[in-house]
Amino acid sequence: MKSLNAPQDIPLFENITADDLKSILSCLNSYEKTYRKGEIIIMEQDSIKYAGLILSGTVHMMKEDIWGRQTLLAYMRESELIGELFAVQKSPYSYVSFIAATDVTVLFIEARNIIHSCPNQCIFHEQLTRNLFDLIGRKSIRLMEKIEITSKPTLREKIMAYLSLQAQKNDSMYITLPLGRTELASYIGANRSALTRELASMKKEGLIDYDRNTFRILK
Questions:
Q1: CA-to-CA distance for 97 and 52, rounded, in angstroms?
Q2: Which domains are delineated in the chain?
Q3: Using an 8 Å Cβ cutoff, are 49 and 92 in contact?
């Protein structure tokens, strides 16, 4: 679990000291809340005033269609934000749901107090705002990566695009995926059984090797 006593390890609080963080958290009306695996943190169409900083655990961003089918849009882990893209809008309604994929602890902070001028004239408010928009930019890139993956015409190409991105991020052809088979299938927009069959075929053809969630790209 991330400790707020070491804010330099949390991107949102980069270049902010532990002493200054205490004042900032008070200014942001922050509070912590813990969720069990499977609990809904933010429901689609909720009005969002607070962005959430994940102190521990993993959160899934899910979208449900009118038939009740859910798609995994993104997954966020320790030190990442949830809900910030919606909390900074003029009409702060969530387009998606955020669900605890594991037991999760979240620090909620009032978004409008980050993007608007601070009435207390906090010294590090400007730094906090820069950090927030840097994280929003990173989130946008991750969503673009998903578009790149899901736009591939075949299941095999989607799998290879996902594995390629993970390999590039880890600078290694050996990678451990953060998603299980069911979650990966949802993320790339595939049927779990079809994904399992395609992975087996790719392994047989010598394109990849894997053991559970550990993969090696061979070709």
A1: 13
A2: 7-138 (2.60.120.10), 152-217 (1.10.10.10)
A3: yes
Least Cα distance to 174 among 142, 205, 213 occurs for 213
pLDDT at 104 over 70: yes
Residues 6+ apart with CB under 8 A from 189: 71, 150, 158
Distance separating alpha carbons of residues 68 and 73, to the nearest angstrom: 15
Q: Residues 184-215: pLDDT tens digits?
A: 999 999 999 999 999 999 999 999 999 989 99
> Is residue 59 a contact partner of residue 73, using CB atoms and an 8 Å limit?
no
Q: pLDDT, tens digit, for every residue of 125-181?
A: 888 888 999 999 999 998 899 999 999 999 999 999 999 999 998 899 999 998 999
Residues 6+ positions from 132 with CB-CB distance below 8 Å: 12, 51, 81, 84, 114, 115
Residue type, 170: N
